[in-house]
């Protein structure tokens, strides 16, 4: 049976079969290496030495994790080929393999015997400073052990629980030494028992794979966590670095120093720092030189992002400062390093209803607000947008921050604040707190320059106390005002239009409620039945003089003339028939008409709708 080489795999290669050896296997349990297994990781190698990374997702661990052992050879099919990860790659490969619910694993019959035992890509000790902070690929090194310290509990800087560590010192063939620190379970598992004899000290050559180069307090060191593996005295004679080590230290007696772990410093318990809770208006009034050094708590809502400001920056992996563009990328002016990683730099305007101000946050704090790593958001950037959707989506979210004053506030009128920590998150709000027009809000140039008095810091005077904020209108406005009153004398009459009496040509009037009234020849109105349809047509020949009219449901205030009260019906919603008082004469109607040509007879109403006439008797 023919198998496909790992180097020949491509995306959507659903029917490929591979026969590989598992050269490495580890379980990822989170940054502190103390949680549940999140996924199992494998490094596979075919019989020609090609290697590829593979991953078993958490939901499939029960199906495959116990059936795959390190150093065993398997035939694998029905897997998914995907693009390799952008970070923490164990090997140099363009693609990777994901196990799926359809993946099948069997033991092959008569597999080739040329599978490599180790998979590595060595980095010399001289090149290690150039990869400090680089998380795109793990580092593999080869050296001899010259010192081993005991297990020591260390509090990691990311705030996790104390974790065990073990420190080693490695030496290469040229005599360069570099420290290596193992973390978590790797620190407890590492031991040289069985490979080193104190009575006959011989050099112990070790191959470390899956490490990262980091820096702490100005010292570079190798770090080994869950992905780290080691092999004592590996059989790799074709590697020049290994040949140099064997030739250089093969016959020497090298004693390994066993250092005791440093005693844990006695830390006196300190009471938790309590920050004072203030409104944003009060923070804007504090002089920068009198701002509390431990910060103040303030609950605000992100109102908008500051435009034309980049939301990320290249950060030096060695010193953390911002890098500047260089001929071949970015370089740090402080330490000269060219190793950098992208970090968040969020600049936004926040409001709490009493004021608004610019705020800035970096790195992990910004990632907590956005909810995604910066590398993932960078892949979604489009050229025609100022901010990606993930960045723009933080507007209207409410938080309680611990704020400190920025350095820029010490020499400018602007007041801006640094977000030191996030105390609470309240999610997206339905409305952003608005500031009353003309209030003393922060308009990016706060005029206060002198230090306020003690009473001014704690409370504001009654004269400067803010009025209640107006109700925020974030709903759809009504379609039209509730009632519109139009005097009848200002509304031009609508002439009646004859309509042919045919079924297809019936005039339909879109009225809410239609009533039809008939007026007799003597001028006295009489109520007829309600119309069954919106709009009606009079087809009776004996009612040729009868007019169909529609009136509107808005009544003007009564007007007094010659001691008599008259009701004039205005134009609004169509609901009935316009009526006038029986004692209103034709002369009074003519006097109230705006022009003679609009004058109607006494039997007509002041306001008419275009309703069909009855066909006259011929």
From TrEMBL:
The Low complexity compositionally biased stretches are 439-471
Question: Is Cell membrane there in the keyword field?
Answer: no
Outline the extent of the Replication protein A 70 kDa DNA-binding subunit B/D first OB fold domain. Answer: 17-106
Q: Which GO terms describe its molecular function?
A: DNA binding
- Listed Polar residues bias regions: 536-545
Q: Please name the PANTHER family in this protein's record.
A: OS03G0429900 PROTEIN (PTHR47165), RETROTRANSPOSON-LIKE PROTEIN (PTHR47165:SF3)
Q: What is this protein called?
A: Replication factor A C-terminal domain-containing protein
Q: Which organism is it from?
A: Urochloa decumbens
């Amino acid at each position: 049976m023919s198998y496909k080489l790992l180097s020949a795999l491509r995306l959507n290669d659903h029917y490929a079969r591979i026969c590989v050896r598992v050269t490495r296997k580890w379980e990822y349990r989170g940054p502190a290496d103390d949680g549940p297994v999140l996924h199992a990781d494998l490094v596979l190698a075919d019989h020609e030495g090609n290697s590829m990374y593979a991953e078993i997702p958490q939901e499939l661990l029960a199906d495959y994790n116990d059936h795959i052992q390190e150093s065993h050879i398997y035939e694998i099919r029905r897997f998914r080929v995907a693009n390799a990860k952008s970070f923490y790659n164990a090997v140099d490969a363009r693609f990777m393999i994901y196990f799926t619910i359809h993946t099948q694993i069997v033991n092959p019959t008569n597999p080739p015997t040329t599978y490599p035992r180790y998979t590595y890509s060595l980095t010399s000790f001289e090149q290690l400073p150039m990869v400090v902070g680089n998380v795109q690929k793990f580092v593999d090194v080869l050296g001899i052990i010259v010192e081993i310290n005991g297990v020591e509990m260390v509090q990691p800087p990311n705030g996790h629980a104390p974790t065990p560590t073990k420190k080693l010192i490695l030496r290469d063939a040229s005599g360069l030494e570099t420290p290596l620190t193992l973390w978590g379970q790797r620190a407890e598992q590492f031991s040289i028992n069985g490979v080193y004899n104190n009575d006959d000290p011989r050099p112990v050559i070790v191959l470390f794979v899956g490490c990262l180069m980091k820096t702490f307090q100005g010292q570079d060191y190798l770090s080994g966590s869950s992905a780290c593996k080691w092999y004592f005295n590996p059989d790799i004679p074709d590697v020049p670095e290994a040949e140099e080590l064997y030739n250089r230290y093969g016959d020497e007696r090298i004693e390994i120093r066993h250092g005791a772990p440093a005693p844990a410093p006695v830390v006196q318990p300190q009471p938790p720092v309590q920050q004072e809770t203030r409104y944003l208006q009060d923070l804007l009034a504090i002089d920068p030189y009198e701002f509390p050094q431990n910060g103040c708590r303030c609950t605000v809502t992100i109102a908008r992002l500051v435009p034309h400001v980049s939301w990320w920056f290249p950060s030096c992996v060695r010193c953390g400062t911002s890098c500047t563009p260089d001929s071949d990328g970015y370089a740090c002016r402080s330490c000269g390093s060219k190793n950098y990683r992208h970090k968040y730099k969020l600049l936004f305007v926040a409001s709490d209803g009493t004021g608004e101000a610019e705020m800035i946050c970096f790195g992990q704090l910004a990632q907590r607000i956005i909810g995604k790593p910066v590398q993932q958001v960078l892949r979604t950037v489009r050229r025609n947008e100022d901010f990606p959707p993930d960045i723009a989506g933080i507007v209207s979210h409410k938080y309680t921050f611990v704020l400190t004053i920025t350095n820029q506030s010490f020499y400018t009128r602007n007041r801006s604040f640094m977000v030191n920590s996030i105390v609470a998150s309240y999610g997206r709000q339905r409305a952003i707190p608005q500031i009353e027009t003309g209030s003393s809000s922060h308009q990016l140039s706060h005029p206060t320059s002198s230090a306020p008095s003690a009473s001014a810091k704690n409370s504001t005077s009654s004269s400067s106390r803010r009025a209640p904020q107006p109700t925020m209108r974030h709903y759809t406005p009504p379609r039209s005002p509730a009632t519109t009153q139009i005097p009848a004398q200002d509304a031009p009459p609508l002439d009646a239009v004859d309509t042919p009496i045919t079924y297809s040509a019936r005039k339909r009037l879109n009225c809410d409620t239609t009533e039809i009234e008939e007026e007799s020849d003597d001028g006295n109105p009489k109520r007829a039945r309600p119309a069954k349809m919106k709009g009606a047509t009079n087809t009776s020949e004996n009612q040729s003089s009868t007019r169909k009219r529609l009136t509107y449901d808005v009544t003007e205030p009564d007007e007094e003339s010659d001691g008599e009260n008259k009701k004039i019906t205005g134009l609004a919603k169509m609901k009935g028939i316009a009526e006038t008082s029986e004692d209103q004469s034709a002369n009074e109607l003519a006097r109230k008409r705006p022009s003679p040509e609009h004058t109607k007879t006494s039997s007509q109403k002041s306001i008419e709708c275009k309703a069909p006439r009855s066909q006259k008797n011929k």
